[in-house]
Write a structure and sequence with these properties.
The chain is mostly helical. The chain has one domain. 65% of the residues lie in helices and 7% in strands. It has a two-stranded antiparallel sheet with strand order 1-2. The longest helix has 32 residues. It starts with a helix and ends in a 16-residue tail after the last strand. It comes from Streptomyces glaucosporus. This is YccF domain-containing protein. Keywords: Membrane, Transmembrane, Transmembrane helix. Pfam families: YccF.
Length: 141
């Protein structure tokens, strides 16, 4: 599976990953310049890294995210989330029109949740069951 995953990531990088990551990185830089929007800028860089190499990784909710993440996601949703999500859906449908493009369309659909509400989420390897749970900590004790 590792070879197939790497091959899919390389083709993805050429077809849409580089352009998407560049777009998210530019948005992240703009958010960093406007000091108030630094949390969204950091989220943009996290999404940009995910957009470069999505196969073998997935989006998982952070268990330590609080009310501030929810409020930040509402602001993000109004100003950027809906437009980014519509772009991922349109690209996903476009890729799914061909048999060869179906994996790349699915990758676009995988990016919908993180582009819609990026705060309070993390990017983890696909084989990670519970990314935010620490096995060395006993919650009962």
């Amino acid at each position: 599976m590792g070879l197939v995953r790497t091959l899919l990531n390389l083709v993805w990088l050429l077809l849409s990953g580089l352009w998407m990551a560049l777009g998210y990185a530019v948005a992240g830089l703009v958010c960093l310049v406007l000091v108030v929007t630094i949390p969204w800028g950091i989220a943009c860089f996290r999404i940009a890294a995910y957009a470069l190499w999505p196969f073998g990784r997935r989006v998982a909710p952070r268990r330590d995210a609080g009310l501030a993440s929810g409020a930040g996601n509402v602001v993000w949703l109004v100003f950027a989330g809906i437009w980014l999500t519509l772009g991922h859906i349109a690209a996903g449908v476009g890729f799914c029109l061909t048999v060869v493009g179906i994996p790349f369309g699915i990758a676009h659909f995988k990016m919908v949740p993180v582009s819609l509400t990026p705060l309070g989420r993390e990017i983890v390897r696909s084989d990670t069951a519970y990314p935010s749970y620490r096995w060395d900590r006993n919650p009962v004790a």
